[in-house]
């Protein structure tokens, strides 16, 4: 019987929530990696038992964890405990938590700086992995979006990582600067119809696209308008919070920007605002219904200073028209005195019929809807602050 | 035999309880102790000092015999009491919220 597995990253560990296809009764496992920040977990579309997790700490840095059995057990792919650290030939084995910016003469030059908060040049410094995006076809290939913003890839199951330096080396790199959460590459969308095309987004540089499998990149921010930067229509500098697509039409993108909900119908070459009748168009998450490419979900947040729902009412908004016309979804969600946030990687959809929607809050609740958002129920209420939510639809 | 204490996060990562005991060949310095620690527990690479530069991570401190050794050279000899195993070399997470 089919079911779902919801992967939840929190400030103090990871949790795995599983249910059958009815999505009424849930088993909770965790905390995994208790005490560590788990920025993101995600399963491989090519092998549902292969999971990757970003385990991080301001004290002790970055750890990559991998599971080959659906989250029952985990290991660091590059450094299994008890094994020698070198091969019989004396070469170091993979180091799965080693993210080193490319400084090679062939591909890593010229080195640049980015802008610090005060506009002064600042060297790139690796801090953490925000997002892990497994390949659509190969369980051993996985992409990592990191802070300070760069894109890495592993092709050996997370044992070692190499940077796509063409992104950071794009001519605009010296003008990128961090948002409030740091200068993070948080969104990675792999085009299911074109293996050479990848979309990424950076706070706060904007969105970029490659059409040659990561060698070169171009900014795709035309049509974005951001009043909080000196040139509101600049080529880069926009604080994109999240981008989503439906796999059936990867040229159509939906974006939740710092302010404004946007849509592109030409793979990011141009954007139009679709905020329409939303009560506020600030927010972090955006996602698309699994079976209805024009049905989009956002969670409006009051403002960039007040990171909580308007009027203390937690409402998901759904548009069935690809934007502009939005309806509030409130059944089962708190409609008074609710002042949580929903962070950018904390919403996901399953592909069951009916489509399930899940999101997590900074108050530690994970809400689920088994009817495409018409009604909601908390799966868990009292986790640590939720950073990310992903879901796997199991056969 | 060198005794090393680790903060709870790193003990969990290395799957050890209590102190770690290491054999260090040659001069007993911060660098040689950390080399031995990372060889025995490769999952700790990058968590105490940078992978490439081997510089101490900003929120990690080193203590031994009641002294703060965080800013000592990695090549400076550690106190005799550490080298003889009388006292432990302490890897400590800075207290800065949590």
CA radius of gyration of chain B is 12 Å
Mean of residue pLDDT values of chain A: 94
- Along the chain, the helix and strand elements of chain B come as EHEHEEHE
**Spatial extent as radius of gyration of chain A:** 20 Å
- End-to-end separation of chain B in angstroms reads 33 Å
Which structural class matches the secondary elements of chain B?
alpha+beta
Number of strands of chain B: 5
Low-confidence stretches of chain A: none
Shape of chain B: globular
Count of DSSP helices of chain A? 1
Q: For the largest beta sheet of chain A, what order do the strands appear in spatially? A: 3-2-1-29
The CATH architecture of chain A is 7 Propeller
- Helical content of chain B (DSSP H or I, runs of 4+): 10-25%
Number of helices of chain B: 3
Average pLDDT value of chain B? 92
Q: Which two chains have the most extensive interface, and how many residues on each?
A: A-B, 21 and 25 residues
Assembly context of the chains: heterodimer
Describe this entry's structure for a reader.
The complex is a heterodimer of chains A (395) and B (98). Chain A has one helix at 165-168, and strands at 3-10, 13-20, 27-32, 37-44, 47-57, 61-67, 113-115, 121-123, 128-134, 142-147, 150-154, 162-163, 184-190, 198-203, 206-210, 218-219, 240-245, 253-257, 261-264, 272-273, 282-288, 296-301, 316-319, 327-329, 347-349, 357-360, 366-369, 377-380, 386-394. Chain A is built from one helix and 29 strands. Chain A has a single domain, classed as 7 Propeller (Methylamine Dehydrogenase, Chain H). The longest helix of chain A has 4 residues, at 165-168. The mean pLDDT of chain A is 94. The relative contact order of chain A is 0.12. A five-stranded mixed beta sheet of chain B has the order 2-1-5-3-4, with helices on one face. Chain B starts with a strand and ends in a 5-residue tail after the last strand. Chain B has one domain (2-93): Roll (Ubiquitin-like (UB roll)). Classes of the chains: A mainly beta (395), B alpha+beta (98). At the A-B interface, strand 6 of A face helix 1 of B.
